[in-house]
Amino acid sequence: ASLYRINGWGAPYFSINGSGNLSVRPHGLETLLFEEIDLMKVVKKAVDSRSNGGLGLQLPLIVRLPDVLKHRIDSLQSAFDSAIRSQSYDSHYQGVYPVKCNQDRSIVEDIVAFGRSHRFGLEAGSKPELLLAMSALCKGSPESYLICNGYKDEEYISLALMARKMGLDTVIVLEQEEEVDLVIEISKKLSVRPVIGIRAKLRTKHSGHFGSTSGEKGKFGLTTLEILGVVRKLRGVAMLDCLQLLHFHIGSQIPSVSLLGDGVGEAAQIYCELVRLGAGMRVIDIGGGLGVDYDGSKSSASDMSIGYTLEEYAATVVQAVRYVCDQKFVKHPVICSESGRALVSHHSVLVFEATAAREVATPGLDLSYLTLGLSDDARTEYGNLMGAAMKGEYELCLVHAEQLKQRCVEEFKLGSFALEQLAAVDMLCDLLSHASQQADSVRTYHVNLSVFSSIPDFWAIEQLFPIMPIHRLDQRPSINAILSDLTCDSDGKVTKFIGGATSLPLHESRPGEPYYLGMFLGGAYQEALGGLHNLLGSASVVRVVGSDGGGQAFAVTGAVPGQSCADVLRAMRHEPDSMFEALKCRAEDCFMGESVARTLAWSFNAMPYLRHGATTAAGDEHEWGGYD
Ligand code: PLP
């Protein structure tokens, strides 16, 4: 466990069980019901063929754990409830989930259902997000907030006002001063009294990667001048009572409670000033930013970790608001937060297969080919190379090998070198590079996944996620590895791991036996940001809950295959149906026989990822769809 720091980032949900497999405690430790789900059993159920009682899904696979999601919501609510109780705060906490973090239907619906008793609501930042939040909240608590952030046009504002008419507690948060004119005009047209919020641009600045949206020069929110402008306009049309919420967001992954306290304190001062100016204030919305400890270090020094607990976060917020309001004799507002990352990161695990890169083969290596045609310069380089190799100086060896290769390529271009001679040089360089990797003991493992589709933040902002094997954890790993993905892109590699490591301890692969890795804490942002580079689409998904009665049983309550080749082609506006027809006709013209159409149909319906290991026989898990 210490090799992978699982007790740091994984507690209280992930641990290693007696079989050496990774297991999940979906309710954390705070439950009378002892439930532990063995992740390997879930993977087996997912990938086994239907004829073997499995689901016939292909990897990569996202295992969703809705009970973890529920535990996160309950924990956040209870941290605020107890801070409010212990500090005799005179109002309550009521959170919203920012759907941008992961708009997946099952997650949004789960959050609304699990959060109903806490009046938990949703936050939207665009028109489609607003549409999904409106329809999801029809099943929420009538008191849940629907917070409308983001840049707005007439359509967005009309939709938000319609939501209010439908009885949803909708707040239009002004992101720019001009939006207030549209809100005034459209609300009059639709005869709806709007509830308005203002996003303030705070002076408090978060200095980490995620803090670029904060501070005076931040992209979002209204300056003090603009806030006063809005107040003036609303007062002018007798709508100042509609201004009821103050919002700010100083960035994701807030590193410390001191920064948090600073930001909340500044916002609370603005809140009290708005009360003094006559606005109908009732809510302070502290945005997102509650962080996740990705590397388990519990430190405020990097973007990968945070230096506080949920309880400390809530206590800091409540104390900062209370202190300012008490000083100004202002009634305590409802505290709202828009935590996304901290709610959904833990509930999903991405499982994928890894295989050790092929050993370099040496058949037919005949160095006599090489030495035959060498020029004098190249012959000297060859002598240096062999000398360094004999002494085991692999780095020097590689330098000489590259120089030798360059010279040989030049000779080949001049026509004085045969293809066999060039192949002998290539092979020599491969062997030396392999020998030097072994001396460094860092090996490459190929992973059946696309970094761009499944871990986009690693590529884009060097965000690290815990990655580790999900089985064989009772055996000491003997290899240090880096991971290389399926895409033909040099960025498609994982070469940095939590804790500053440049390699990951892995086990030797065993022939014919799949080796599974899991990526953890990736439930926020990764699915929504993942792209279609190389047309490698989204992963398969299973939704897994513990079985009634506890113990080690589990039930799969939902399964969705990943995007097929046809799906990803369609996403780029190709037309798989007509492509299939055209290829089928061509095959018929070439007298290729009927089985070609079946193979083509199967290819369109299959996932784009490699099919090996424990996955099922071709065709087992796919309907023929529209291609027959
Ligand atoms: N609210 C707003 C306005 C945001 O911009 C964001 C994220 O960027 C969030 C909430 C969610 O932040 P987090 O995931 O850090 O909780």
UniProtKB/TrEMBL annotation:
| Residues bearing the modification N6-(pyridoxal phosphate)lysine | 100
**Which SUPFAM superfamilies does the entry mention?**
Alanine racemase C-terminal domain-like, PLP-binding barrel
Q: Does the keyword Transcription apply?
A: no
Sequence ranges assigned to domain Orn/DAP/Arg decarboxylase 2 N-terminal in this UniProt record: 90-345
Q: Does the keyword Nuclease apply?
A: no
Q: Which reaction does it catalyse?
A: L-arginine + H(+) = agmatine + CO2
Cofactors, names only: pyridoxal 5'-phosphate; Mg(2+)
EC number per UniProt: 4.1.1.19
State the active site. Answer: 488 (proton donor)
Identify the keywords attached in UniProt to this record, alphabetized: Decarboxylase, Lyase, Magnesium, Pyridoxal phosphate, Spermidine biosynthesis
Instruction: For this entry, list what GO says about its biological process.
Output: L-arginine catabolic process; putrescine biosynthetic process; response to cold; spermidine biosynthetic process
Any one GO MF term held by the record is: arginine decarboxylase activity
Pathway membership, UniProt: Amine and polyamine biosynthesis; agmatine biosynthesis; agmatine from L-arginine: step 1/1
* Protein family according to the UniProt entry: Belongs to the Orn/Lys/Arg decarboxylase class-II family. SpeA subfamily.
Q: What is this protein called?
A: Arginine decarboxylase
| Species per Swiss-Prot/TrEMBL record | Amborella trichopoda
Upper taxonomic lineage? Eukaryota, Viridiplantae, Streptophyta, Embryophyta, Tracheophyta
